[in-house]
Amino acid sequence: MVDASTADASVDFTTAVQATQHRGSEREKEHPSMDTGLVTTLIVVGVVVVILVIIGIYLWVTYNSLVTLKVRVDEAWSDISVQLKRRADLIPTIVDTVKGYATHEKAVFDDVTKARSETLTAGDAGTASAAEGHMQKALKSVFAVAEGYPQLQSSQNFLQLQTELVDTEDKIQSARRFYNGGVRELNTKIRVFPNSTFAKRRGFAEATFFETAEPAAIAEPPRVQF
């Protein structure tokens, strides 16, 4: 036979287990959304983190892209400056050569000398564009004077100067196209939202095109027909 005290203890244990299970069940009924709320919170936090990471990557890529474009534009402008300086170095020799035959054309020579000075002192694409228009008009005037002197046009020295000038003009136009292409790409990227806000805060500004008021002159460098 089972001892009475043992039976009582077994009954008490069973009762205690049932009571514990009942209390657990009651707690689950009282807080049915506890686990669901935690999961929801974790999901929200995860989504926020992912969004922040995506934004961070986007800003990083955008910044690097803007820096790359800015460097490209600056380098392209440096190439233009080199060619403008090269042409400016040719001007005094061209003027002296033509002046040897047409000493009375002082106004023409003074004008091209002034245009040369404007080109050398231009600090940015805007002022350089204005100076370029003046330079093209002045050079046309110089070569128009030269056309009136066949002996000058047959001079080997003058022929060489023209060859160097035309070569330099071609290089200026090539560099100008490359520079303006970079400016267009940079400005477009800066203008697009939300890049516009980010670029402004990071100190990026739109660049200026290198243009001229005399497009025909700049598209067709001064040449003398022989």
Description:
The protein is mainly alpha-helical. The longest helix has 66 residues, at 34-99. It has helices at residues 4-30, 34-99, 106-121, 125-146, 150-153, 156-191, 195-201, 215-219. Residues 215-219 and 221-226 have low confidence and may be disordered. The protein has a domain at 73-219: LemA-like domain (de novo design (two linked rop proteins)). The N and C termini lie far apart (138 Å). Helix 2 (34-99) packs antiparallel against helix 3 and helix 2 (34-99) packs antiparallel against helix 6. It is rod-shaped.
Low-confidence runs = 215-219, 221-226
CATH class of the domain at 73-219: Mainly Alpha
Gap between N and C termini: 138 Å
Helix run count: 8
Q: What is the CATH architecture assignment of the domain at 73-219?
A: Up-down Bundle
Beta percentage is under 5%
Question: Biggest sheet: strands, sense, closure?
Answer: none
> CATH H-level name of the domain at 73-219... which superfamily?
LemA-like domain
Radius of gyration: 40 Å
What characteristic shape results from the CA principal axes? Answer: rod-shaped
Number of beta-strand segments: 0
Q: Assign the CATH topology of the domain at 73-219.
A: de novo design (two linked rop proteins)
